[in-house]
Amino acid sequence: EVQLVESGGGLVQQGGSLRLSCATSGFTFTSSDMSWARQAPGKGLQWVSSIYSDGSVYYTDSVKGRFTISRDNAKNTVYLQMNSLKPKDTANYLCTIRGSNYWGQGTQVTVSS
Questions:
Q1: Are 109 and 94 in contact (CB under 8 A)?
Q2: What is the DSSP string of 54-65?
Q3: Could you tell me whether strands 3-7 and 18-25 are parallel, antiparallel, or unpaired per DSSP bridges?
């Protein structure tokens, strides 16, 4: 059974940092491309970042230079380091296997101004 479990969200002030984790199991993590997406209240799902199995990384423009995606293949875990957080980053952040229908439950990030 595929499982994706996010953690690390919380309430932080503008300019602060958070590190999200997505612990996975039930599939071959090392050969899987992984992504983070977010959904703000009342809005649709927005892709945030991806890390491929070869280590290539990609970001949506609004987080470039502030967020860093990484993976630990030994721990089957993908991370999202978020710095210089802004109120517009407030959302539920979800982890997914890129191109699949597998999603975690998400972790809430709230940035206060």
A1: no
A2: TS-EEE-GGGTT
A3: antiparallel
CA distances from 89 to 8, 24, 27, 46, 75 (A): 15, 24, 30, 11, 27
CB 73 within 8 A of CB 30: yes
The per-residue pLDDT string of the chain (113 residues; one tens digit each, 9 = 90 and over) reads 999 999 999 999 999 999 999 999 999 999 999 999 999 989 999 999 999 999 999 999 999 999 999 999 999 999 999 999 999 999 999 999 999 999 999 999 999 99
Tell me how far apart the alpha carbons of residues 35 and 97 are, in angstroms, rounded to a whole number: 6
> Are the C-beta atoms of residues 96 and 27 closer than 8 Å to each other?
no
